[in-house]
UniProtKB/TrEMBL annotation:
Function in brief: Specifically methylates guanosine-37 in various tRNAs.
NCBIfam families: PRK00026.1 (NF000648), trmD (TIGR00088)
Principal place of residence: cytoplasm
Protein name: tRNA (guanine-N(1)-)-methyltransferase
Lineage of the species this protein comes from: Bacteria, Pseudomonadati, Pseudomonadota, Gammaproteobacteria, Chromatiales
Catalytic activity as recorded in UniProt: guanosine(37) in tRNA + S-adenosyl-L-methionine = N(1)-methylguanosine(37) in tRNA + S-adenosyl-L-homocysteine + H(+)
Length: 255
């Protein structure tokens, strides 16, 4: 998989491919990262890429021509079809399912917005989708591009140490992940749930599914509403609620 990032700050984006899971994936050749600075196609002594907005108002707007030229260079660099995504506050909020679809694309170009935004005509003519990290504003799209690269890289076969790791993440299947524990078994009187110590795979999976449903119900009911749990999951959720009531609202750790 190849990522091409159009950004005024390529030095900000490149480190995402140098550390951790993404660093290892890059070393294994699972993905490539290329950056393109639109100032290369800017105008004047300062290689300007922005200008004042029509209609007045504060700030500047990224110009059509430098970004269009950068995208043309991206397309010429590799014959494979490229999907162009602009990272903007007006974009669709990022979800795990979107990353799973994107990782099927051999080439992705990520266009990082800056200033007050990008000339709308560029978005209409050159961009396939607009994505956002959420309902807030950052100084630019670079952090969002890094999030997309990281989220995709860990889904590539061979990127994670265990083949099932990505399939057990939060949002896989639409739910939050269940709680996790490691050694020691007791910390300040808090114990690991008994089910996780049994070695009984069916009981462990029962506990994990129940806790994932319960955590989603408590923290992200909007996700649970989308999942439309079946009868088996509904029974597990009822079980979770009953345990919570009996424990006075504290997380059950010893069923």
């Amino acid at each position: 998989m190849r990522f091409d990032v159009i950004t005024l700050f390529p030095e900000l984006v490149r480190p995402v491919a140098e550390y951790g899971v993404t660093g290892r994936a890059g070393e294994q050749g699972l993905f490539e990262l290329h950056t393109w600075n639109p100032r290369r196609w800017g105008t004047g002594v300062h290689q300007a890429v922005d200008d004042r907005p029509y209609g007045g108002g504060p700030g500047m707007v990224m110009q059509y021509a430098p970004l269009a030229a950068a995208l043309a260079a991206v397309r010429e660099a590799d014959p494979r079809l490229v999907r162009v995504i602009a990272l903007t506050p007006q974009g669709r909020p990022l979800e795990q399912a979107m990353l799973r679809r994107l990782v099927q694309c051999p080439r992705v170009a990520l266009l990082c917005g800056r200033y007050e935004g990008i000339d709308e005509r560029l978005l209409e003519a050159e961009v396939d989708e607009e994505w956002s990290l959420g309902d807030y504003v950052l100084s630019g799209g670079e952090l969002a591009a890094m999030v997309v690269i990281d989220g995709c890289a860990r889904l590539l076969p061979g990127a994670l140490g265990h083949a099932d790791s990505a399939d057990q993440d939060s949002f896989t299947g639409g739910l939050l992940d269940c709680p996790h524990y490691t050694r020691p078994e007791v910390i300040d009187g808090r114990t690991v749930p008994a089910e996780l110590l049994t070695g009984h795979h069916a009981r462990i999976e029962h506990w994990r599914r129940r806790e994932a449903l319960g955590r989603t119900w408590e923290r992200r009911p909007d996700l649970l509403a989308r999942c439309l749990p079946g009868a088996e999951d509904a029974a597990l959720l009822d079980e979770y609620r009953g345990l919570r009531r009996r424990s006075g609202g504290r997380r059950d750790t010893d069923d």
